Amino acid sequence: MRGYVLKRLAQAIGVLWAAYTLSFLVLDFLPGDPVSAMAGAGSDSAEIDPAQLAALRHQYGFDKPVLAQYADYLGRAVRGDLGDAISTGRPVTSTLADALPGTLQLTGAALLLAVVLGGGLAVSATCTTRRWLRQLLLSLPPLGVSVPTFWVGLLLVESFSFRLRWFPAFGNDGLRGLVLPAVTLAIPTGAQIAQVLSKSLLTALDQPYVETARAKGAGRWRVHLRHALRNASLPALTVVGLLVGQLVAGSVVVETVFARDGLGRVTAAAVTAQDIPLVQGVVVFGALIFVLTNLIVDLVYPLLDPRIVAASGRKAGVA
Amino acid sequence: MSQGLAHDAAGAVLGPGHPPGPGAGPGAGPGAGGGAAVRRVLRFLVRRPGLVLSGLVVVLVVLASFRPGLFTSRDPLTGVPSQNFRSPSAAHWFGTDELGRDVFSRVVHGAQLSLKATLIAVVVAFVVGSLIGLVAGFVGRWVDDVLMRFVDVLLSIPALFLSLALVTALGYGTVKVAVAVGIAGVAGFARVARAEVLRVRQAVFVEAARSCGARWYSVLGRHILPNAAGPVIVLATLDLGSSILAVSALSFLGYGAPPPAPEWGTLISDGRNYLANAWWLTALPGLAIAATVLATNRVARALDGEWSRQR
């Protein structure tokens, strides 16, 4: 088990390094010159002093060859320093850390909602004996993955904030302000969870062990929840692991719609300002979230299916 | 085989007017098989009114993007300022915006930009991804390892973050956003294409072709490609829907075409400023996006084996 965890950690570090390198490559092709943009921001129309420009280039290391820049940045990144944001001059890591709590609240609430709603929908759709109800429930997930998140958010604001005045339309304050953004963010994720779980539940219900359980006199709900659901939840868990990264990225849209402070707003602002170090930091952070959730998912698998422990050495590729 | 299925399904979607592909009735003669096949297609469609409706929506959207004049004669860019903020009515189906422009006409004309961006995104993802998957699966060994590790890295970065990084590097505009969305979708295509190539490579007929002395390029072109294409094409149709969503999200965030252009996402972000007094400016363009995505997803699901499963 320890060897397995160590191997997964090494893989995780490899992915982070590769994500950093990839974002460096992509952002290095940037046609604009961030330094002159930064110098121009301070002095509106005045001539930019070439010496000052050169000094700034030197400060950010833009005057060195690309490989030297890369080695330099990577060396600092390993020590946890992702450079300074160009638009504000503050360190990228502390900018991200300040923005993180709001986004974690949002994505955490959305994940909880998505799992509960998506899981509940899948279970009740496969468990009901009424045909029309099943058809109705199963037609919801395809709808959920087809609606644009920003549109759902705006519709919710329109009806629940402006008309009914139940929830605040904008801002970060409290639990009431969290409801609409979390619901908005949860809809596509919950729909995907429901799709995967209902499919794997239907497969599981066809298995011989379900028939055995029925033959032994277990009721419909008991068969469903105790026997089928546990086996069917493995594929859904894999999907949840992949969806957490999407949830964090989805905060860019949702936080923009609801004018919430957080990682998403910071990202949107960074892209608008062509703030390379900050965008790079966000990309690496996205990879970090992906790696962490997959690590957690891999550790949860054995709890659901004890057979996985024996084969855990070979399971590395599943997620 | 899978390609034959995809063609069958494509024939089914195109409707009864189009004769189904040659794979439909292998045993029957062309005359006798034709009538039965048409009847089967009809029965397939009659049982699925949702699919027919979806096909209709897709056709309408494609028509709107090529010939917007068929649907509206109003100018999407200049409005009548005295007629601003009219709610939906017979004269203005989707109402008018703050400058008195007809929103329906803007949505219809926006289909062109949004569909163009979506197609570019899907083509980029399809071509680059399939190429990576094909080379990885066909060459194997260390090439496979290197390419698939690269794909794993692409997968580890959330798609929206990856597109945003690319937009930061490339700049704003419909085409650049489309390319950014396309590259974020490369990984999925690479994985499916590689899996298909690996599956087909093991097949007996490929071994037979090899043992007959066929060159690698003719094995690839005549045996592997046609047989591996089906699932990749199905993925491309599925990717249409998610690309529409991704492209419109990026243009909603303001990285798409510059202001007067009626891109779907831009329309909604413009309407957002008048959310409290003019709901139709956000609700109705969004409904157009949702309907289009829902329809393309439904058609993609039909292509994905629904036709073959029902026989």
Automatic annotation (TrEMBL), chain A:
InterPro entries: BPD_transp_1_N, MetI-like, MetI-like_sf
Recorded topology in the membrane: Multi-pass membrane protein
A GO biological-process term: transmembrane transport
Main localization, broad class: membrane
CC annotations in GO: plasma membrane
Keywords: Cell membrane, Membrane, Transmembrane, Transmembrane helix, Transport
CDD domains: TM_PBP2
Subcellular location as annotated: Cell membrane
Family of this protein: Belongs to the binding-protein-dependent transport system permease family.
Listed name of the protein: ABC transporter permease
Automatic annotation (TrEMBL), chain B:
Annotated keywords: Cell membrane, Membrane, Transmembrane, Transmembrane helix, Transport
Domain ABC transmembrane type-1: 115-300
Family matches, as SUPFAM superfamilies: MetI-like
Disordered: annotated segments: 1-32
Recorded topology in the membrane: Multi-pass membrane protein
Family: Belongs to the binding-protein-dependent transport system permease family.
Annotated protein name in UniProt: ABC transporter permease
Natural source organism: Streptomyces corynorhini
